[in-house]
Design a protein that fits this description.
Strand order of the largest sheet: 10-9-8-11-12-13-18-22-21
Strand content: 5-15%
Number of domains: 3
CATH class of the largest domain: Alpha Beta
Radius of gyration: 35 Å
Oligomer: single chain
Number of helices: 21
Number of strands: 22
Length: 644
Amino acid sequence: MTTTSRTLSSLRKLKIVPRWMILTIDLICVAFAALIASLINAKFHFNELNLKQIGNFTLLVLVLNVLVFSSLKTYKGIVRFTGLQDAFRVLLSVLVSSFSILTVEYFLIVQENTLPDFTRLIVYAILSFLFLLGYRAIVKQSFEMIRNYRKIKKSVVIFGAGQAGLSTKRVLNNDLRNAFNIVGFIDDDKRKSSKSMDGVPIFTFDQFKAYQETNAVDELIISTLNMDAKRKNEIVDYCLDHDINVLSVPPYSQWNEGSFNSRQLKTIKIEELLEREPIVLNNEQIKQQIRGKRILVTGAAGSIGSEIVKQLLNYSPELIVLCDQAETPLHDLELEIKDLNLKVQVIPYLADVTHQPRMENLFAKFKPHIVYHAAAYKHVPMMEFNPVEAVKVNALGTRLLSDLAIKHEVARFVMVSTDKAVNPTNVMGASKRLAEMYVQALSSEKNHHTKFITTRFGNVLGSNGSVILRFKEQIEKGGPITVTHPNITRYFMTIPEACQLVLEAGAMGNGGEVFVFDMGSPVKIADLARKMIRLYGLTPNIDVNITYSGLRPGEKLYEELLADEENTIKTYHSKIMIAKVREVDYYEIGAYFSKLSEEINTQVEESHLVSRMKTIVPEFKSNNSVYEELDFGKVMDIRGGVIF
């Protein structure tokens, strides 16, 4: 074991000094301050000293300070972690004890026609404060020197010269495992420029850039808790370009008694850089519709479904039925909700949304007022090779649930769709467009009171099967990261954001609308991969390679939120619009669905099934798929060979 290791080990094992010992040292300090003050007051003429008077003054100082220190608990702080609060406590104790001495001397000790010795008292107050704080500072600095002996210090800047930034500095100063040299704070408030906080200078970001050109900086810690994503991207991009590691403090909800520990500092996640401004919801309208109601959420154990459930819990429904066919995720969700100890009744209902008797039983038993239909197959390549399942679950499953919603007088049926349903180039997108069309057609019927609402959005960050999670796994394995095409782009939003908009759209809908969400700007997947590699402190194509595998079956380069013939109209919510889609005749679409169901039951060739989908959805043009030939009158079997 090295000298440094032994030193650190002994520091960790060192017991905290007993409180009575700190109190004793404090009393020695004030007694010494009283003696020095008496000597200074006598101008160090030792032959003129009144030892009895000095003894009485010192005794008075000791007695009063025992009471003051006990009341203010100045001895309770750990000396080697002395901070600003400890300094204030020491100052307060000195002021209180000095005032107490003045009071006692005036009323009990001073003879008639004389006044207390103010000079001695002022000198005593100054010296006692210096002694009490000084020995604490010496102990703290000694620990710092021992701890950092031969340890390489990281140069750190903290973004945010506020309370969170100050807390971050203290966390770093008290970290026994690492050595940090905090060279400055950065703040966008120019009024703080050229000032200092806790002895550390404050820069603007431009000043920091100039500083960084001549001084090495290892880490930048973002301590601002409400920074918007655009500003965060600017900072992170600059740091990544200059090999500066970027960390962030945890959310305030994870702090303990106004602080956190250094282990909670985390590397910036790509999800944080793709976030946008917080969504403002009409919570009162949502609450009025949800409160006291029975809610059914299909696909409840999935990424979107589970988040919808968690957000619904905030609006006090009577009960929520969690319908999903995935046993373990459904069980995990149930346990997670139970741990919240809420009064909402939650029913896990294990079932396949295409199983009619089971769904009939669900609606008959629980009689939901509102249905959020999030159950669906969503992986494009998987559905391209399994079109039967795509149609069965995404299209026919939606038909079953929506028909049951009418039969059992459900008030609202909110369907979660996808941007891949717009001008679909794959089976999955086409199956979701079929579901949209059926739900839309039901809205035009006048023989029921159920309001059917469709919501349409793009990729969500961190969802099951998300490209973000895939890239993380590949980076942690050392690469390579696989991107399908250098120019492929996608829209992204966070899971909570998407689900908030689903609830808002579901509340505002009058029936028949296809709501589309403002997805922001599309993101180039290759750029996303490069940034993720750099966030891990690695260099793209040196530490981790990026390879291009080619577009997968059914995949297209650019996603769309609206079809070519469609446009939108605004709603009161800036992030939600209504798509103007072509009208669908209920009887026509009903006949098509019956034919699809018949062909699935008779195990028709998959190519015939896809051909039927193209008839119903004429804008469905396959891309990079064996079904491309259907658009020209023939199709190649997956295994090769012309079918027709």
